[in-house]
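Posting this for the archive.
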Amino acid sequence: MNILQYKGYVGEFQFDAEDRIFHGRIMNTRDIITFEGHSVEELEQAIKDSVDDYLDFCRKLGREPEKPFSGRFNVRIKPALHREVVLAARAEGKSLNAWVAEKLAQAARESLPA
């Protein structure tokens, strides 16, 4: 996965060999924000321009832009798993939140390429 970041927004991009251009899209928002460039330098500038344009557009509309990541999310799990997770956290002397955050960080590090 090829990524660029700007102001907390994460853009994934790929190279289109036929058209000889990089195409990208911001991944961490439901709003559609795209960018493209013929070189890495153009691509880096394009993500900045696209994010800044998005933020300006939202400001002009009087609309709050979608935040890249709030640090909060809800997960629905079965009650039995909820109980097991709480007990596992307690067994390690951690809060449920701290335990889950630690396990998610471990899983993310193992899943992402180095």
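The first strand starts at residue 2 and ends at 6. The beta strands are 2-6, 9-16, 21-26, 34-37.
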